[in-house]
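Folds abound. A case:
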Amino acid sequence: MLPAEHYVDSGYATAELIVSARDLYGLALVAPVRFDSSPQARAAAGYGRAAFTIDWTAKQATCPQGQTSISWTPTIQRGLDTIVVRFSAKTCTPCPARTACTSSTSGRRQITLRHTQAQQQALDAARTQQSSQDWQHKYKIRAGVEGTIRQAVAITGIRRARYRGLRKVHLEHVISATALNLTRLDAWWNGHPLDRTRTSHLARLDQTLAV
């Protein structure tokens, strides 16, 4: 009984998993993905990766100035299968938009793609979606799930079963869920926080110094 959407944290959000979940199970894997890490994208100025047109059939990229790449090299970066696309220094060096495109000492631009078109397109779509307010509002459900799990572990000790046998463990889970619901209802009715808040070590040190 798979859901249509599965909300997970950023540790699960890879292009490969997004595509495989969709193709194998018809499941939308919803999680934050890493944004384009190029200097142009981080500075929100110049030509990020998304500004380039990719022709997967011809294995070629075209920059915003209309210049085409000269190499398409499959490689492995940080354990991931990727494709490195390079442009010629002969066209990049005299380009009037070079400073908006690259700060490389070699004078030419290169971009990195996922090793399949499906993965790259899924990654681009995820990056676009997670920038919207609607996506961010929907993803708040993940924070609620994390808070519930944290509270269940702290209050009921559900991480370790007290009994042996599936029936007894199932009964324990049902009782724990009931206790958790009652605890949360009591907090709601009386205006108390659902769970204790955490103060980081750095914040506690700051409070100590202030005293």
